[in-house]
Design goal:
Blueprint (H helix, E strand, L loop, with lengths): L8 H17 L3 H11 L1 E5 L4 E5 L4 E5 L2 H4 L1
Antiparallel strand pairs: 1-2, 2-3
Length: 70
């Protein structure tokens, strides 16, 4: 189940694009997670996969697509 940012699916698309762009600029997954925390996001590994959370409330935004989990 995905929660849309501001109930706008385009906001989710923009967020995922930000994640992809940021991942392309970073050297490691650890660095990427650090940068994402600066943007107010966190990644959590669950039994279902990796989930994107909004900080500081830890609200689940969505599960990450497979291309971002690698």
């Amino acid at each position: 189940m995905a929660l849309f940012i501001g109930k706008d699916p385009n906001g989710l698309d923009a967020t995922l694009q930000l994640l992809r762009d940021t991942r392309a600029r970073t050297l490691s997954r650890r660095e990427w997670q650090h940068v994402l925390r600066g943007y107010g996001f966190d990644l959590r590994r669950t039994n279902q996969g990796t989930t994107l959370l909004k900080l500081p409330t830890n609200v689940e935004i969505c599960e990450l697509p497979a291309d971002l989990c690698a």
